[in-house]
Amino acid sequence: VSAISDSPAKTPALETPRAVANKSDKSRLLRAIRMSLAIESPAVRRNTQAFNTGRYAATALLPDYDALKDQARAIKDKSIAALPELIQTLKNSVRSRGGHVFVSTTAEDACRYILDVCRWRAAKLVIKGKTITSEEIRLNHVLQNDGIEVVESDLAEFILQVADEQPSHFIGPALHYSRERITALFKRKFKTDQPLDTGEALTQFAREKLRDKFLYADIGITGANLIAADTGTLMLVESEGNIRMASYLPPVHIAIAGVEKIIPTRAEMAPFVELLAASATGQSLAAYTSFLSPPLTDPIFLLPGKPAKAREFHLVLIDNGRMRMREDAVLRETLNCIRCGACLNSCANFQTVGGHAFGGESYSGGIGGAWEAGTGKLENARFSELCTGCTRCVNQCPVRIDIPWLNANLAERLNQQAAPTPLSHALGSVTSAADEDRTAPAGKIFFGNYHYFAKWGARMASLAHAIGGTKLAELASLSDGAGRARPLRAAMERWVGLDRRRNLPVFPKQTLVQAAQKLAAGVAKPKAPKAVLFADVFTNYGLAQRGVVTIELLRALGVDIVVSESVPEGRAALSQGMITTAKGHAKRAAIELDRYVSEGRDIVVVEPSSLAMFRRDMQHLFESKERFERFRSRAFDPVEYVIKVLEKTSRKPTDIFDAARSPVGPKIFFHAHCQQKTIGAAAPTEKLLREVGFDVLTSNVECCGMAGSFGYKADYYDLSMAVGADLFTQITQQERSGGKRALIASGTSCTEQLHAGFDRAVMHPIELLAAILKK
Amino acid sequence: MPDLATTFEQNATDAGATVWRCERTPLAVRSCVERAAEGLKGIVLSEAEFLAPQILGGVRGLAGVILKPDDEQLATAGVGVTEAFAGIAVTGSVCIAMGRPLAAATSLLMPLNVVLLPGERIVERPRDLFHPGCLKGEGLKRNLVFVTGPSATADMGPLVRGVHGPHRLLILLLE
User: How far is A418 from A442, CA to CA, in rounded Å?
Assistant: First the structure.
């Protein structure tokens, strides 16, 4: 890569993408991240963020986007359930039209069959359209080893073939390449003096190289986006025209597809047609969407010197682990995937490093780990650690796959496969982690049981406050990482992977629960709204003042509010793939809150990632939907709850709040927490802040890069800061043109990331509202 | 509320196609094709199915039209003239039905593709063509290609129109 790189990378290239494609050991993952940050990140950011912006715009134009997603999901669920029958129906449909169908159990079987077809037809030249499934089965190597020339005709795949790299993205396999790097690559590989210094020149150059290959190819190979069992119709989506050519010009067309691409009928392709392009590239439709039921009836295209042959069609259906995935309660979910890439484009980590780091041999991004594990080995899914569980992909998936939940399960399986160390065992024991989770690496057990360490840290800090004041408390909190706490921080970095460059929150003098006990009890009217403030671990042992302010403000608004005990709700454990432990934590939280809910109290949660547990993630952790619904329907963000109370008591926000009283001025920058956005709790906050008179600016970043514990980890500190750079840049640019703004953020870890970028105070929206309450 | 033709015209233009409204007469169609093909060598026509035969009849007499092209001529001709099976208003797409002589070749191989779209065959959304009641359910039976603008790529950096398929798409919206 270094030889072909003309990027302004400051650090030398460390690896080639091929060398780090297999990430079954973690060192390759870390090397791949370094390589991508050094070389590929600028192009990946530009291209994925363009796709992401386009998707938001295109899906907003779909009048029934949610209903379409439901329809698509229902069709996929039905198809996966009936897959064996659909395969049989499809075989009959294709054969009745004169085509051939081969169902391959393994990648090797598929390659052998395709090679046999090539040999039978004495093929010398094969032209391929983009098919990631052919990457999965390593088809090119098999054909080339038999002396067959294989030409990739999708321009991105063409670039990768020239560069000998694996794809880095489902739909933009070479989007890690800038135009400048492509120019340098072509000049070096093709030894040309042409300037090739524009996209048009490069396209023309490649087109000329490929035109005759299309015309003289013996066989064309394509993939398929979907296949209808009833008619044998392939749905093929593309923009360049190469798939149309590969399926029409050569006398033999081979289509390769995973068995999960089959749906019952052609009519059921309808919702996918509109969803796929919008979700993938942000277009209403790609340039070409073909619906072909081969073999085509068009006459064979014959140029002089090309032997006359009858038109022939082969459909090669690939199992390669998919039928096993179908029997696996977790991996079965993956088979719904239509490979639009929306989960890649909406992922902040992916936007920063792309699929050569956040990806394996064939598949990449949030959904990629499950594909690699299902069609290969679990170890190949190690890169799915880069899924932080921020959930920004969840609402973007056109078939509603809960990708963070998939990745939590992959993490759990990897944890359980790991060799336990004495430290992980000891940590698992003292924290009472579930037995099933005690083989996890020590760092995961540490982060996954943050409540335990925070509780003890807070006790020590409280003592230190009493004895020696703030400085000693900082030392006790280990927050003084650059100073006196340095040896301890170095030890923590070594043993549990907590990066020493990160500031840690200073444990408060009083926890939220302690502070709440000292607050004056509110005097609520008999029919006042009733709530319980769930003392989440991050607020209770961290930014406790946010909880205190929430109680004070809601009492001022007439709410009868009490505070719960502080117990973990499972967020920390879930984020480390410690699912059994997370289930235990969620159960504890539910038991703690049960009596309050029985009293008719709503649940207010300050930390958005904790709130998201009640609103979303606990659906996977509770034994019944009813149990989940009991908490989901009553859980609110503090600002959401303020809005609910105002609406219930028929008061306008401006009757209660006045931005003119703001201690930080009227101009603010609001950074919404990733999970807060996903559960729909961010938009109401932004709206209320505007309504009460604030001049609010926001960013379009999906996540600040901190993502709970992710940014604290030494392995991922650089990536986390690189992700954060987008947010920092947008804030800086806005302030450069419009003056300084107060930083407002709801998340504990977002607050830390903003501190890291700006070293300025960050307020929670509820603190800001409390400050502008009219007396 | 704009009518389907107006919506189609706007969205096709946004997708990179050119739309000319054209009277449905042999003379008008001939004139449009002649103007579009100016400077280009070789015009190939696909067979019509939905239009009256005389509509394309005028074009056949134009200079440069290759009436029975061999495959080498197809590979090098400059203009392909194709009849559309349908148009889609919200995406500005034209749907080409494969299988008719030269429909695939004229819509794919030449740098300029001129597509004749009868206005009454414009539907609102892509999904409509999957409904048995739409255009007699033919959309569910045929080999179709939804063409939205000329071929394009962003693989070489900026968006480039004109890759393997046609570089320009001219839609004659027949009124």
Answer: 11
Q: Which residue among A179, A274, A287 sits closest to B126, beta carbon to beta carbon?
A: A274
> In this complex, which of A198, A244, A301 lies closest to B71 when CB atoms are compared?
A301
Residue A774 CB-density burial (10 A; 0-12 exposed, 13-18 middle, 19+ buried): exposed
Which pTM was predicted?
0.95
Those residues whose C-beta lies under 8 Å from the C-beta of residue A119, and which sit 6 or more positions away, are: A146
Share of chain A above pLDDT 70, in %: 96
The answer to whether B109 and B76 are in contact (CB under 8 A) is no
- Rounded to a whole number of angstroms, the distance from the CA of B117 to the nearest CA of chain A is 17
CB A606 within 8 A of CB A513: no
**Is B4 touching A (CB cutoff 8 A)?**
no
> What sections of A36-173 are H helices per DSSP?
41-60, 65-81, 83-96, 107-120, 132-136, 139-145, 155-163
- Interchain contact, A240 vs B130, CB within 8 Å: no
A762 forms bridges with which residues in the sheet? A743
Task: List chain A residues with CB under 8 Å of B158.
Answer: 179, 198-199
Over 60: is that where the pLDDT of A392 sits? Answer: yes
Position A383 pLDDT exceeds 70: yes
Compute the residue count for chain A.
Answer: 775
Residue B73 in contact with residue B106, Cβ under 8 Å? no
| Beta strand residue intervals within A582-666, DSSP E | 602-605, 635-636
Q: Identify any residues that bridge with A313 across adjacent strands, giving them in sequence order.
A: A253
- ipTM score here? 0.98
Which helix or strand (DSSP H or E) is residue B65 part of? strand B65-66
Whether the CA torsion A269, A275, A281, A286 is positive or negative: it is positive
> What are the angstrom distances between the C-alpha of A20 and each of A33, A344, A349, A602?
10, 19, 17, 50
Test B74 with A301 for CB contact under 8 angstroms.
Answer: yes
Rounded Cα distance between A115 and A312, Å, is: 15
The residue behind tokens 């070594």 is A494
Binary contact (A241, B93; C-beta < 8 A): no
Please compute the mean of the pLDDT values over residues A96-121 and round it to a whole number.
98
Q: Is residue A200 scored above 60 in pLDDT?
A: yes
Range B50-76 average pLDDT: 93
